[in-house]
Design a protein that fits this description.
single chain; alpha+beta; Metal Binding Protein, Guanine Nucleotide Exchange Factor, Chain A; 3-stranded antiparallel sheet; 3 helices; 13% helix; EC 1.8.4.12; oxidoreductase; zinc ion binding; peptide-methionine (R)-S-oxide reductase activity; Met_Sox_Rdtase_MsrB_dom
């Protein structure tokens, strides 16, 4: 938030109510208006506690602790809630931030951006455009050619290795879900 905006907020007589919204129509989407919706009960059963906290409560996992922070395998990163493909491994880079970072998306409209004014700063929140799951934030300090850094929580992602067989079956018969994605591992 710029100094002028902060000063403007502090010196006004009336309290200012800020509401993040990035849609051109001026209306904010709620969980019920995303193309794909899931009940909170279903999500609590299907996701681990940290996955639920990050994607549904806009939480953040600890830096340098995420499952995909140091992942170097080739493949596709998808939304852990709805499975929508978001990023490919060739667009991932080490930003030193402690979270998986990407400089470009699979499709431009796979992520919705909204203003996030929490913690006294202005950031752009990145959410899955299919289900509204909180993924992380977008910053403008990434590498060329885009200059963007999508700083994404590992807990909001699933990963499909390029070497995995069809339908998530890896060579050797294991499913495409990693061991640390299991609900008992927390």
């Amino acid at each position: 938030m710029s100094g002028f905006n902060l000063l403007h907020l502090v010196t006004k007589n009336q309290p200012v109510k800020l509401k993040a919204c990035g849609l051109p129509s001026g209306t904010c989407r709620t969980k019920k208006t995303w193309p794909r919706c899931f009940s909170q009960e279903e999500l609590r059963k299907r996701l681990t506690p940290i996955q639920y906290h990050v994607t549904q409560e806009k939480g953040t996992e600890s830096a340098f602790r995420g499952e995909y922070t140091d992942n170097k395998e080739e493949g596709t990163y998808s939304c852990v809630v709805c499975g929508a493909p978001l990023f490919t491994s060739d667009k991932k880079f080490d930003s030193g931030s402690g979270w998986p970072s990407f400089f470009d998306l699979i499709k431009e409209d796979s992520i919705s951006l909204t203003d996030d004014l929490s913690y006294g700063m202005h950031r752009m929140e990145a959410s899955c455009s299919e289900c509204g799951a909180h993924l992380g934030h977008l910053f403008d300090d990434g590498p060329r050619p885009t200059g963007k850094r999508y700083c994404i929580n590992s807990a909001s992602l699933s990963f499909q290795s390029k070497n995995a067989g069809p339908e998530g079956v890896e060579p050797g018969g294991a499913t495409g879900q990693s061991a640390s994605s299991s609900k008992s591992d927390l």
